Please model this.
Amino acid sequence: MIAGFNALAFPSECPSEYIPLDNEPPFIAAQHLSLEFPDSIFSLHDLGYSDQDIATCESSFGYSNAFRILSDEGVALMKDICERIYQNRNASAGTGANRLGSYARGAGYRSKFIRDFCDSPELAAHLSAIANITLGRHSVPAVACGINYAPDDITKAVDTWHVDSVSYDIVMMLSDPNQIKGGEFQIFNGTKQEGREILGISGEEGMDTQLPEDRVITLPFPAAGYGFLQQGNMIFHRACRLQEKADRITMVPSFEVLPRSAMDATNSINMSNWADPGIQQELARHEIW
Model:
């Protein structure tokens, strides 16, 4: 990270609803990361955004294809930790209303391994090189470290068509994608305004329905430990329904553009309606910063 471009420090206190794990291994970047670059990068222009649209962003970066992020050891440890957090997920532990099939936000409160991964300067520098802009771990812990699980009811989408409440995030597969039928990650080949208009929705609300096949791009994961980077508040995207029950865990860490004087795409108004413990304090802290 460039000196002076540091992310806001993670809070020292943990809301009581989150249950911290014990007996965790330490995160060691040299052992647990295996960072590679994507083969392809697509700009917002490629999706049909105008220069005027892009002027509201700090970068024209749109999304990349999947690239390797974790080593084999890193995948095994991260997946085990996410499986341990599964019992402390969703509204049962205060993680809020469930648009997703099954998820845990604020995973950095529960796991120091995850928090140190999301805080890793090596990861931030690598993502910054891909997006050609300085990125750091998002200052709102609820979204800084998130986990998505397969829903118990596979008639529900893993995640419906939507845009994110933050600018940048990675979607990293922790399960073996070759053992999963369905659950593909897809983006709309167009602007978010076009996607919303076709579905008849507004804002960041989600909808579990089909878009025209010729307007949908599927981004495959080659293996566990691979993920892709997207400017999530500009990319209309979803994770499809599973065709049969399967182990499907993805980690979705979020990032923001640094320094803090950069344009901030965080949708604090939308996030203020979330039921996550401590979210109001997190958002106030972010906005003050």
Observations:
- Residues 17 and 93 are 6 Å apart (CA to CA).
- The chain has one domain: 29-282.
- The chain is about 25% helix and 20% strand.
